Amino acid sequence: MRILLVDDNSTNLKLLTKLVGKLEDCEAVAFSSPDEVLSSLPDIDFDIAIIDYQMPVYNGVELYTEIVRFDKYADVPVIFVTADKDMTTRMAALNAGAIDFLTKPVNPAEFQARVQNIVSLSRARRQLADQAEWLRREVDRAVGELRLREQEIIHRLTVAAGYKDPETSRHTLRVAAYSEAIALEMGLSPEFCNDIRMAAPMHDIGKVAMPDTVLLKQGRLTEAEYRQMQAHAQIGSDILSRSHSSLLQLASEIAVSHHERWDGQGYPNRLSGAAIPISGRIVCIADNFDALTTERPYKPAWSFERTVEHILGRAGTQFDPDCVAAFERALPRIRQIMEDDRREQAQEAMQKAFTPSSEKVA
Fold first, then answer.
1. CATH number of the domain to which 199 belongs
2. Which residue positions does 4-aspartylphosphate occur at (predicted)?
3. Residue 321's domain spans which residues?
4. Separation of alpha carbons 292 and 307, rounded Å
5. Which of 25, 87, 148, 334 is 20 to 30 A from 54, alpha carbon to alpha carbon?
6. How far is the C-alpha of 162 from the C-alpha of 170, rounded, in Å?
7. What are the pLDDT digits (tens) for 89-131?
């Protein structure tokens, strides 16, 4: 326990230093003038301050006022030493933050009793702070482990959702990356941007309930099949909504809202404008962008430029104008994500092409 001593009287300072030395596990940090203390801040480390009230240039209260300008000293207890018994002086010290007083001439027995009590209080406070910090770290660790489990659950469900169609898995991951890029450009919190990247792959989880004749159909869906496919949004939300996980609840919100339209002509609930959750509005654009720029059984892939023009032209009707503006700002990042994914697919195709037949059978 380090105790700061400040007294311009050398005899008093020596006495205080000697008395501190008699306290268990305490060390004196002695200064003979306020100027010396101020010139050494904030490099001095101390746990308690004992300051003479009457000193030249700065009195004790003025010195302590300067000391606590530094955040590291804000909670340090201070004892003032004074020969002045005037109530005005003592009130000034109390208002400055004094926790106790010592009267000159200092009585060694009184010093030991008063300072020992404050030392014990400081140690207890430090132990409490250490315990609080330990508890905070443990909570952070537990939350981190829980989030990792949630992420693993989402990953496994995403893999399951794309089991029948490998391209679905790549689609969901691209949509997640595009959604994060748009969310970042909207100035949303880093935590939300990370969560939307984790939750967005679940946007089509409801398709696990679709019959293969509809899900894997080569060609355009009939009107009846299209209505059947639309049910995947509500089904996906129902699958995820009963979870207590905030991440899965976000995924449920995205699943049910990513086909809603800004003008209210979407599905399944015909929500419009700000009634559509921001997560759904963002994923709606990301999902459309990816659907248009990739080949589907019923259409060829659109060019990057044509797709961008299509989305920008539907701001205020199909899409939230603010989300579209963020999408436009995110285009360099979105293009990079798309190109990286295509490069990875080409490399995977090349590796498969050069894999010996015996290895493929094995």
1. 1.10.3210.10
2. 52
3. 162-348
4. 6
5. 25
6. 9
7. 777 777 777 788 888 888 888 888 888 888 888 888 778 877 8
